[in-house]
Fold this sequence. Notes:
The structure holds two protein chains of two kinds.
Chain A: H1 2-7, H2 10-26, H3 28-48, E1 56-62, H4 67-78, E2 82-87, H5 91-100, E3 105-109, H6 113-118, E4 126-129, H7 134-159, H8 180-211, H9 213-219, H10 224-254, H11 262-286, H12 290-307, H13 319-326, H14 329-343, H15 351-375
Parallel strand pairs in A: 1-2, 1-3
Antiparallel strand pairs in A: 3-4
Helix pairs in contact in A: 2-10, 3-8, 3-10, 8-10, 8-11, 8-12, 8-14, 10-11, 11-14, 11-15, 14-15
Chain B: E1 7-16, E2 19-29, E3 34-38, H1 45-53, E4 60-65, E5 68-69, H2 74-80, E6 81-84, H3 96-106, H4 111-124, H5 140-152, E7 158-162, H6 170-185, E8 189-193, H7 197-200, E9 205-210, E10 213-218, H8 220-226, H9 232-253
Helix pairs in contact in B: 3-5
Amino acid sequence: MSGAINAVRRWTVWPMLWKEFLQLGRDRLTFALMTGLPAIQLVLFGYAIQTDVRKLPTVVVDESRTSESRALVQVLQNTDNFTIRARVADRAAATRWIERGAARVALVIPPDYQRNIRGGHTGVAQLLIDAADPQSSGAAIAGAQLAAQARGAQLLAQRYQLRAPVEIRVRPWYNPAQKSAVFIVPGIVGILLTITMTLITSTAIVRERERGTLEQLIVTPIGKVSLMLGKLLPFVLVGYVQMSVILLLGVTFFGIPVRGSLLLLYGLALVFIVASLGVGLLISTVARSQAQAMQLGFFFMLPNILLSGYIFPRAAMPEPAQWLGLLLPLTYFLDILRGVLLKGVGVRDLWQQLGALVVLASVLFVVSVRRFSKTLD
Amino acid sequence: MTAAPVVRTRALHKRFGDLVAVQALDLEIARGEVFGLLGPNGSGKTTTIRMLCGLVLPTSGTAEVAGYDITTQSEQVRRRIGYMSQRYGLYDELTVRENLRFYASVYGLVGRDRDERLAEHTDALRLVERLDQRAGTLSGGWKQRLALACATAHRPDLVFLDEPTAGVDPAARRTFWETIYELAQQGTTVLVTTHYMDEAERCQRLAFLSRGHLIGIGTPAEVVQQFGARTVEDVFVMLQQRDEAAMPVAAGRS
């Protein structure tokens, strides 16, 4: 170990850093990947992709035209899941709206709706939903059912002069406005670091091998440790800059709260960075060309986006998918990001995630450094 | 002092699995020599150079480069050698000046020392006019000159040139060889592999390798005489034909 420390000399790491930053700044593809990608992700996931379903276009066929039917429409509208686009004459017209795609939902209230309610029967209305997209239709269905139940309970209470016996008052903590940006933007930090540490790092190393500069470096007295440090450190710095920029933009434009300690977050990020660098280094030892490294990198990104809980909740996944997710460093880092930023928790509540990350980081890094230093012989 | 050879190998062996790349190589190269390593493809030239540079470890045998053992003192060896590969090892995104600065710094040259050394060096290698051009946009000849400059900025005792003039036009080859002679006159030993016979004849001494064996060594004239041929090229062609004829047998033997 002392030999390894002796091998790190300032004069060998500095030129590597200097050279790497010059290259990063001048290689257009890499530069675009590092700056353009985060910007696009932020805009896409911050603004465009809303996993929370709001304001589905809705048409109303009100054949009852009574105060009760108007009250029902109002109740649905209040859920914010529906926006009334039009009132149409009959069911056939409503169907045409849905078929054209101009409406996703049609509410049909029959002529006897108020009469049934007042007569002590059940007033039945119908909700037609374009359920091709299960996520948004699911939200619409749940919203409509809740609204109807609430309205029903209200009417019952009126009819029998009762107070509601049970009521649940919901307080959505951590993200009271239920905005998906608050959930997604912290995750972008994790995705971005994964891209930089695996994709960009591995292609940068493979490029050196492809062009023969790696061989050239091995012949110099630089030493393996300095060479590796010189190659990996720049990306750690780049990662921290990216993280800071996303956090800054997230706080400024998306109202992301910073409830916990940033210092803790940056510290824990290092463990995640080391784990991801391990993956990047591993890819660089397997890939024969830059194109292969890119492909492997994207292949690794896929489960990270799908299984880590970045967009899709892990709790909703089948068990095997959840187990696979446990193998990804990002899964734990997302918990850490959301925990520190949104909940303001400290390391005491994150020790499980930290432990898992430390294990993953040590295994990945040790294995890949070994493999990599063999390629240097 | 002058008698101590810069390269001395004893029974140097390199085996890749079943393939014997270099066998029982004994070689001595004197200081300030321009020494050519010749042989058909697969004869072991590149493997020999890679062993002497410390890029691959020998299977058995020993070698000293600049007075240090290549297996046990590889770091000392690396400080005293320069290496220019067929691929040049330049950073395309960096300018000529930046490439030079980078390689000089990696060899521990810093500050004013480095800048003075590089100024002198770029002058000698006639690179001054291209200092701010990106290496990736240079023509083959300029790239080659820059690669040589990067490999020699730290004033190595010995510089290895592995097929340095492949794909370079004749005029650039001529200037390149003038530079090599200048280096040798300053006391730098040059070990070069080449496929060009006119270049082989410019070397002060030659070694012919065939299927991993050293089969002839001496001045170009001596080598030609040893093989009873008229020119170095004849020797080369003769060896290549012999190798090709022996191929199937060789596979069975090894």
